[in-house]
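Note to self: keep these together.
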Amino acid sequence: MSLKMELIFIVLILACLLSLALPDPQGDALFALKTSLNASPVQLTDWNQNQVNPCTWSNVQCDPNNNVTRVTLSSMGFTGTLSPKIGILKTLLALTLPGNGITGEIPEEFGNLTSLTNLDLSNNSLTGDIPSSLGKLKKLQFLTLSQNNLTGTLPTSLSSIPSLISLLLNSNNLSGQVPVHLFQVPKYNFTGNRLNCGNTLPQHCESKNQDSGASSKPKIGVILGVIGGCIVILLLGALLFIMYKHRHKGDKREVYVDVAGEVDRRIAFGQLKRFSWRELQLATENFSEKNVLGQGGFGKVYKGVLTDGTKVAVKRLTDYESPGGDAAFQREVEMISVAVHRNLLRLIGFCTTPTERLLVYPFMQNLSVAYRLRELKPGESVLIWPTRKRIALGTARGLEYLHEHCNPKIIHRDVKAANVLLDEDFEAVVGDFGLAKLVDVRKTNVTTQVRGTMGHIAPEYLSTGKSSERTDVFGYGIMLLELVTGQRAIDFSRLEEEDDVLLLDHVKKLEREKRLDAIVDLNLNKNYNMQEVEMMIQVALLCTQSSPEDRPAMSEVVRMLEGEGLAERWEEWQHVEVSRRQEYERLQRRFDWGEDSVYNQDAIELSGGR
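Structure:
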């Protein structure tokens, strides 16, 4: 080797050694975050300060140039504070840490995250002011700081973020005046604070207007009242003229009193669009049957295309013959709209007429889990096992949010594969949540009407009409069995071979016989991990116990699916199940009178759980 080549070789070696020795600012910043969050020894174990490239760390995503772009640390139980060193991550697009117990203030240095589009610090214990430096985040689209203990006033700098489309600050201790420009953000929520929204939108702040210029209000009010009265008279006159004209033309089509298709700030809650009937009629081609995506207990769902080309799903609710439930309907729509989670179907808008209630959602191009399991067209791909695992966990997280992070809590009442939708990445999106309550709000008495799908309904709900979050847990367990087997919750074709019409009974029988491989969906072509299948079935059987008190909460289900605590619960369940079956068999022997008995054995069987 020549002297020149040797020198080049030595220089390259030294360069490599130097690169290994130099600290990585990105890794240092993330390690500082881990330390300040008080991560336990078993959390973020691969976040190693001596490891050069943080792009290999869990919960961290990078671009092709090894620049950190996303840090996601949701519901991990952190109790520490936020490190200001995170502000050096200039390429960071998303920083999400919801559902922890993080304390302290939001560092001013977060305003240096100039590429940030999504900042989610909700459901923590953060204190102090919202730093005005956040106004420097010109690319920020989603700012979620709800359910903390933040104080002070809203910085006016937030009004200067041109790209902001969602501002959720509800359930804090904020006070003062809301900058008027923040009401132009397409989606906002300021409720649960002591904020002053001025004369126009006090209902969004739950506070009284403190304007000192009260002396001029009565005059203005009288003037507005006169103008408003004139408008009402003109509208009534126009309506009577239209009705008279239609009647004398012999046109028997229904006449709808409708509003313009725009964001109605009085009822749209700052984040929903109030559609006109005509808009949705055009979008769905007059609610054509060829556009029906599905039909359930709450009505039909139609595929639609808005005038700007946006694809939507329009749910036309039933059970609204009475026009008296308009205000109650709008209150319940607000409740649904504030439930924002990646695994919950986002509500875009709504439409009300005297006889119609419609909800508008984004169109999910991969349709539902039920469709992907049982209704595939030729050439469409089946759900592979890793996708099914991801669907199980995503659905559990969505339900956990409804049960444990919404106030008031939302009970779905119809959890099944048909109500779990799939986005473009096959991520689970729970739909139809809150609809059972929504269609019952106009009833003055406590509803005892059971809503749901046979085979998915928990026994206590079926017998008493009373639902709870554990009712949803039961339905979720049945949905897990659908994911594993691809089968329906009730299948009468099984009557030809056995008595187990219910999928749950069928799986229990095979579990006792240690033949679970016989129930796995044949479409998987044996491309699955049997240990993972058994784990999912174990979780399903724990969720579908007959006593609601014995079922796990959805937060516990999430942990079990992530590999924590299942073995202990499963061992306990097996002991209880053995005892229960022994008692059942003892009673069977006691009342077994033989074939010649005058008693009808089938009648006794039917009186028990099927």
